[in-house]
């Protein structure tokens, strides 16, 4: 069994507050892994440690066998939505993604437009992001996370602001990505959003991660 991510005694404290409490857990490659938990449970902090955005107080984060913060600073092939996706409000969705894509020069206009289509938005729309609904912003955030074809995809509350149809469309997209061998870790507040989609489900409560499926 190959693991995309291995956490070993991962802990994170902010001053006196211990937010992550000695988490040891492996996430298998090519699966969809769900994390449920309320705001403040530690989900987002764990994601930031995996991505190299926060340095753990203790323990080890391995992504594809490489230790984050020692062997590499950030995972080598990852797409991320953590908290609210930040976009330039006066640009269209396509223009926002084009600027982000220019940082790595891995994809061109057609790949960007295809990803925008995949999440149910119009790739040729001139509408500015500041005119987007919450659900449209969430869809654009998912497009940003997947557009460079990463092996690991981390989605913090990807159903935020989506109606029932939007949730179904995103679930379909995530299943397609799993078929292509991607590893997906996603967080949500409740079990119904996750149950039919995820291969494994863990609960995060007060910094403790427990597998429940």
Overview of the molecule:
- The chain has 213 residues and is α/β, with parallel strands linked by helices.
- It folds into two domains: 1-77 and 150-213, Rossmann fold, CATH 3.40.50.300; 88-149, no CATH class.
- It is built from six helices and ten strands, in the order E-E-E-H-E-E-E-H-H-H-E-H-E-H-E-E.
- It has helices at residues 43-51, 93-101, 109-118, 134-146, 164-179, 192-195, and strands spanning 3-14, 17-28, 32-36, 58-63, 66-67, 78-81, 152-156, 183-188, 200-205, 208-211.
- Strands 6-7-8-3-9-10 form a six-stranded mixed sheet.
- A hairpin with a 2-residue loop joins strand 9 and strand 10.
- Helix 3 packs across helix 4.
- It starts with a strand and ends with a strand.
Question: Can you give keywords for this protein?
Answer:
213 residues, alpha/beta, Rossmann fold, six-stranded mixed beta sheet, four-stranded antiparallel beta sheet, 6 helices, 10 strands, 29% helix, 29% strand, globular
Q: Averaging pLDDT over every residue, what do you get?
A: 93
Give the CATH level 1 class of the largest domain.
Answer: Alpha Beta
The number of distinct helices, counting runs of at least 4 residues, comes to 6
Could you state the CATH homologous superfamily of the largest domain? Answer: P-loop containing nucleotide triphosphate hydrolases
Span of the ends, CA to CA? 18 Å
Q: Tell me the number of strands.
A: 10
CATH topology descriptor of the largest domain: Rossmann fold
**What is the chain-wise order of helices and strands?**
EEEHEEEHHHEHEHEE
How many discrete domains? 2
Q: Major β-sheet, in short?
A: 6 strands, mixed
CATH architecture of the largest domain: 3-Layer(aba) Sandwich
Residues in helix, %: 25-40%
Strand content: 25-35%
State the shape: globular
Catalogue the unreliable spans: none
- The radius of gyration over CA amounts to 17 Å
Structural class, by secondary structure, is alpha/beta
Strand order of the largest sheet: 6-7-8-3-9-10
